[in-house]
Design goal:
Elements: E1 7-11, E2 17-22, E3 27-30, E4 35-38, E5 42-48, H1 57-70, E6 76-82, E7 88-93, E8 98-104, E9 111-114, E10 119-123, E11 127-131, H2 136-141, E12 148-152, E13 156-162, E14 165-170, E15 175-178, E16 183-187, E17 191-196, H3 200-205, E18 211-216, E19 219-224, H4 228-238, H5 253-260
Antiparallel strand pairs: 1-2, 2-7, 3-6, 3-10, 4-7, 5-6, 8-13, 9-12, 9-16, 10-13, 11-12, 14-19, 15-18, 16-19, 17-18
Length: 266
């Protein structure tokens, strides 16, 4: 194997974290901000890109980091190595309520495509790059799905799904239509495109956006019920204007209380 062969255990239900067990000289790479805790004896190192091009010199590292800039991610990732005798553990946490999905890249032909903010961590040696769209429709209307990340190699990787996760195994020619933000990831043979919803009423009054993601098998697709963009939108919509405290929240008296206090914002 090119990637390090790591063991892991998932903890929790709604707010999960993954505990990875490292043998001596094994390592794992993770997005900045996902670290939770680690045993004594593990060395942390900030690296350019994902570290999979470490042996290709400085230019290889720069190219790897440049790919990450195109997906909107940081230039740097964090690597954790076990530098002592005996097993050591390091843990990484979900960024918001949902599920952590273990992806064995060897079982998926060495490649998995995911949303750019879904990746959590992976065994050292797994390459985290970009998957460019080859179709105009995806680029113009795909939203979150325009530039996606690709995970390549033969090791374990972990991605995060918001809310409840659905796994769909599509047969050859079978089609699944999904909100673009609800896609977590899919295997390399799934055909992905953008489809216009159609219909005047659907377009103007539907409230679901103008486009679906059209996924056609064969392959496996992971869907999330709560993408972060939807969660953030609901939080912002419910926040009081001007940072003031909302009175009577959840009650019909909320607006009346604002009028009495001289605050007529609804």
């Amino acid at each position: 194997m090119n990637a390090h062969e790591i063991d892991y255990h998932l903890y929790g239900e709604e707010m999960q974290y993954v505990e990875i067990e490292l043998d001596p000289q094994e390592g794992v790479v993770a997005e900045a901000g996902s670290f939770m805790m680690m045993d004594d004896g593990i060395k942390m190192e900030t690296i350019f890109g994902d570290g999979s091009t470490k042996n290709e010199g400085f230019l290889g590292s720069i190219l790897g980091a440049g790919k990450r800039i195109l997906t909107g991610e940081s230039l740097f990732m964090t690597a954790f190595y076990n530098n002592v005798v005996g097993k050591r553990k390091v843990s990484f946490a979900s960024p918001y309520p949902g599920k952590i999905i273990p992806i064995n890249l060897k079982e998926f032909g060495g490649k998995f495509i995911c949303q750019k903010d879904a990746f959590l961590c992976a065994a050292k040696g797994v390459s985290i790059g970009i998957e460019f769209s080859k179709r105009l429709g995806r680029g113009l209307f795909g939203g979150e799905g325009f530039i996606m990340e690709k995970l390549e190699g033969d090791g374990m990787a972990f991605v995060h799904a918001g809310g409840t996760m659905a796994k769909k195994v599509l047969q050859a020619g079978e089609i699944l239509r999904v909100d673009t933000g609800c896609i977590v990831g899919f295997t390399q043979h799934v055909d992905y495109d953008i489809e216009f919803i159609g219909g005047i009423k659907n377009t103007i009054f539907g409230g679901e956006g103008l486009f679906f993601a059209k996924l056609q098998g064969p392959g496996t697709v992971y869907i999330q019920s709560l993408p972060f963009s939807r969660l953030a939108g609901r939080v912002l919509a419910s926040a009081p204007q001007g940072g003031g405290k909302q009175k009577g929240e959840g009650s019909i008296l909320g607006g009346l209380g604002n009028l009495i206090d001289g605050d007529n914002r609804f």
